[in-house]
Amino acid sequence: MKQSNLKAWLYLLPAILFLGVFMVYPLIDVFIYSFEEGYNSASQTVFGVGWYNYSYVLHDPYFLRAVKNTLILVVITVPLSTGIALLISVGLNSIKPLKELYQTVFFLPYVTNTLAVGLVFMILFKKTAYTDGMVNLLINWFGGESVDFIDGPYWAKMFVMCFYTIWVVMPFKILILTSALASVDETYYNAARVDGTGKWRIFTRITLPMISPMIFYLVITGFIGAFKAYSDEVALFGTNLNAAGMNTIVGYVYDMLYGDSGGYPSYASAAALILFAIVLTITCVNLLVTRKGIRY
Amino acid sequence: MKVRLEHLTKRFPNRNKKIKTEVVAVSDFTFEIPDGKLIGLLGPSGCGKSTALNLICGLEKPTEGKVFFGDDDVTDLPPENRGVGLVFQNYALYPHLTVRQNILFPLQNLKGEARPTKAQMLEKATEAAKLVQIDELMDRKPSELSGGQQQRVAIARALVKMPKVLLLDEPLSNLDARLRIQTREEIRRIQRETGITTVFVTHDQEEAMSISDLIVVMKAGVVHQIGRPQDVYNKPNNLFVAKFLGTPPINVFEGKVRGGVLTIGEDAVLKLAGVDDRDVWVGIRPEGFLLQADGPLCCKLIGVEVMGRDVSVVASNSACTAETLRAIISSETQVDSAAHEVRFALRPRKVFLFDRGTEERIPYDVR
Fold first, then answer.
1. Which residues of B touch A (CB under 8 A)?
2. ipTM at complex level
3. Is A135 part of any domain?
4. pTM higher than the cut 0.90
5. Which of B67, B84, B221, B318 is the most exposed place for a label (fewest CB within 10 A)?
């Protein structure tokens, strides 16, 4: 017994070592930074210990704007992307010819580089001296006014950001949901057919509950992913997100560390821990709902 | 409800697309199921019995032929309009619904005037649950039930709409031996109480023999014999049916008829009438052997197994198609297990002759 315990620890050692050095220790450090007031990384000096960093971050209009942006992004993209992915997956699952081709097409964004995709979106949406962009051409075609989606009004920028996020996260969700749908035992559908169940009822009463674990999984990871959004925004609006008014919480943390106004690890740590608290709360709520939702 | 199948044929395209020939699952199945009877569809795995069941149910469309319920042609009707109840081999209970919700499910699908009120639905569900004796488990989830209980829920769900025909696909295959015997009686009782025409599929001949009014023996999509279980056992149409029914299985010998005498190996065992001189397969049921010191059939004794009620004598004979043959004799008979050989007399009614080529049974009289 003792012997095998020792062996188990030995096997775990490399992972524990790396996780400890590169994850646990920095986490603790971040926690400590967030309470050290006036920390100076060059001289390694501190004025005192307290809640000032949190108070500063929570009163910083840039941070509040970042929180607002992130929340809008989360609330819009998570339900929409999951819903659309579900629709597409059900469609994919019910067709036979060219199914593989469509699956590949829908999966392409997943293997494409974020920045490359961002460039494509720029071409689609950006207004330059020479052209108004593809989307504006379409809008003009239908008789609308051109809108500057990249440097224009807030709602337009938010629209592009949400549209982009949904488009980027879709392939993974479709992949998961199509395999979840395919794994539902055919006999349930046969049983339902013999009992004369309507199509909509089969979907809501059998298919949805059967794949609900996967849907919950996607919603939870979707929430976490959307809260951590940053690189997509850079791809669309450039590195100065504060100027564009499209910063996210992670973007704010980055700016506080390395941005033009950066060099404040304490503020960055406080902001990161606030994000952590938000994500943790939302995830716990999600898990509670999940536990009530699936029981079999 | 009487069910009539006329020249029912189902062909599937070959799974390997390069092979153009089709797989025939059911071939020219013609049969009338009398009203209110329990029918056992019996055959080895992959013989097309489940496909036959699906054709009756409507989950599969026949390639050729017709299905009638009473006098109505239902061949083109989808399953929900046929009024059938189907119990699946793995029960297919919805895992996220309670027993009550599972039983209610078919009722909640009804629309318009056929749809009962909520109170009526609950009453019907309780009635069905009482019939299969699971009314105390109504609030459990399927995962909290034993295999036998799940089976009962599946039957209740199939019965709650009072189907005209109840179909059961391998209803006992997922149960342990003891539960199987109990459940098959249960199925018999439920069928008697409701009087619903019932068809069940099984590969276990004992199961089919024990509770069916009629059995249908199938092999490779072709029906080999239809009849009352005892009739089929006593008068098998061919060698396959004879081999498939009965435990322990029938013993098959190479034999020949010469001048009205049936000979196995060197031993002249029976005097027959009405059979020309020819080579035959001789099938002898285990209970067809009588231990007799001067019996005509001489075999090498291998062992004696005492099983309480009777004794099973294991022996070998060079003319037997199997390595060993098995005879069941009453335990009152003394067998000398140290002896090297045993001699048997045969009960003529337990001895069947089959053509060497077609394997059809050759009728004969005893002289």
1. 57-59, 78-81, 84-86, 88, 90, 92, 94-96, 105-106, 109-110, 141-143, 157, 161
2. 0.79
3. yes
4. no
5. B318
